[in-house]
């Protein structure tokens, strides 16, 4: 089941660099794992912003919330989730 | 080059059904052709709305505008275009 | 799986009363059926507006879109869908 | 009498963890008590956000404000309250 | 129990004057009746707009919705309802 | 002359409690004085928010600004002022 | 007493030209009269829009509403009214 | 050439009073000078807000930006600039 | 003197094609003339929308308003005007 | 390929002046380099704001993101990117 997720990241300027770097590297590691598992199907950078547009393929709302809320950068994110359905004109099945 | 495109369709209630149906079937035919060509890479339905989220793969802004503005339903669409770049944590190349 | 759905209905003043009444009665009939089936779990009226807040219990995004988009009043609705997950402090399971 | 309440929580990153944890555990305890009393009838997590959608069943506006404003996390919440009425197509009484 | 209600009226220019005048006079008559009954406690005109700010004193959400939704101009109104509680610094009881 | 005033209060979490309490008690004292004088005619709490809706009865814009801007909590308020006029259907004179 | 008034005019394309022209000429005549009387103190055109920014000098909210609501183009206007006070750094008295 | 300028001032609560007072007095001095020069033609206080509405009379966009950006409070202002033109119904020339 | 102008065009679906085409061709002719004169310095199409971003080089606000308000499509445009000044890091003079 | 980019800069008041000045001078140096290379084609100051409107000429979305995200002030910017296409009435080729 597909969900469109837009993540806007805002890291306070006052955060020590080490902490920020650690968060980012942990975030990257987890993102790679989730992509390898197929859960995080698409991940694109929004040009000009510290934001991404993603598509997740999960079995339930709860699974999606669990994945998102355990991302290291989660506390510094504004997240919008849009459930997606099969489009009648789509060539590919979701 | 990838672009995230959100299309919200609003067809006036006053439009004769035949005209609306013709527009929709032409739209579907063109959407299928563009997907087959690889230009229209992803097409998903936004749950609960006459709207879709799509990803286009084109060579230029002009090409994207030409594709979008010649969609039969274009005059009845509100379209938001967001250019996408490669995300540093993305497993797959754009 | 639960989804929070807000439906704002706007019927054009120019619509003939008979057509409007037919749409409304068909809408009511389908709403009752879907509630009896357990799909449409909660349905409340927003005070002062031709709008409702509902909670649907469905198995997938696609099922939810199919239910919503086949509501007779669907073409006259602005719908916002918010996926819900289990709240860690909720007494009742979703 | 039912009220739809949306609570968005924002805890400053600068808050010491102990204080944040204490607030959250007190919040959870009170939430459970209010649910057991029937006042807090529904509590769902908004997927991807530190937010919930709830339905309260109270006897008056004043009672609702008293319940909300004494929640431990109240100073860190943006709250929207929407009064609900019986929907003419609702199977269940409010 | 007090509710703050803001009503913005938009009557289509295409509506025949007779129908508009009838709606308005019925609206005025009902407004006077509801004020005499004490339900419609305050009614003020927003300067420069076909809008009013009102305060209703009702026993329940359902009663408020019933009063508002049976106003003749209801189909041509955008209504925002804000439940009010006793302010700790208010001299007068609500 | 009546003005509708909505005051949203946001006190920074970092403010020492003593200072906050002093501000609040001074605010309450002044609010009571202004209500006794008839200037601050209505004061209601917005349910679920650190906000109030008020109606002031003053002789001029300048007087209203002087009253509002000398409220102890003024620097921590977002204020919206809406001038009110006599509604043609209002039973009571403003 | 000064009020800042922004008027955005939207005349439906379907309105017969004669009626629109008559409304506009009546509007202009009344605007000139009100300026001569000193009530309408400033009237400027917003560049690129069928809108104006004005400053009215009136004795009360009611007078302002009466002036605005009797403008011929009033039914086709979106109006925002902002009460103005004497600025402590202003050289000229209001 | 006239420009409508709305300035919303937000001074952080954490700023030492001396610094804030110095900024404000320098702001006032410069405002008086600019008004005497005719550049800053109108300056009004928005009732209930630390904001003003002004009209500047300058020879170019660059001159306006230079005046605004050298105001002592500029770093703490949200500024909206609206170019004004002669209104066809205005009695006075701009 | 430079102004950034964003024009969003919305032509009602009910407008006869001949009238729409005539408006568009007149618009194009005038646009070319104004570009040749140097007044309309830049004209770009916003991808995916019936909108453009332009830069005008004019001698005054009034001249800009005169140019914009006499565009054939003006009654069907939403226009935002932003005055531009010389950027301190700009290589080229405005 | 052209992109319209609006950059709004907000530097926290708490940032030491030296750091801010260094960021600004590095920003200016890079901006000049990018303009000399033709990548940063236009750079204008928005009157009254610490913001600019720019037009970039790049070969891809990725190149644009790389240029923007390596600007020294990038972490303190809100950026909106709008892809531009050739306007059918434009005299000059993009």
From TrEMBL, chains A, B, C, D, E, F, G, H, I, J:
Keywords: Aromatic hydrocarbons catabolism, Isomerase. It is an enzyme of class 5 (isomerase). It catalyses: (S)-muconolactone = (4,5-dihydro-5-oxofuran-2-yl)-acetate. Pathway: Aromatic compound metabolism; beta-ketoadipate pathway; 5-oxo-4,5-dihydro-2-furylacetate from catechol: step 3/3. Residues 1-89 form the Muconolactone isomerase domain. Its EC number is 5.3.3.4. InterPro entries: Dimeric_a/b-barrel (IPR011008), MLI_dom (IPR026029), Muconolactone_d_Isoase (IPR003464). Belongs to the muconolactone Delta-isomerase family. This is Muconolactone Delta-isomerase. It comes from Actimicrobium antarcticum. The gene is catC.
């Amino acid at each position: 089941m597909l969900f469109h997720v837009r993540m806007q990241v805002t890291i306070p300027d006052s955060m020590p660099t080490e902490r920020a770097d650690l968060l980012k590297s942990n975030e990257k590691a987890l993102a790679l794992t989730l992509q390898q598992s197929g859960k995080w199907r698409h991940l694109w950078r929004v040009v000009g912003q510290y934001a991404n547009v993603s598509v997740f393929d999960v079995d339930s709302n709860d699974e999606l919330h669990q994945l998102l809320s355990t991302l290291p950068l989660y506390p510094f994110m504004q997240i919008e989730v849009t459930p997606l359905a099969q489009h009648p004109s789509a060539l590919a099945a979701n």
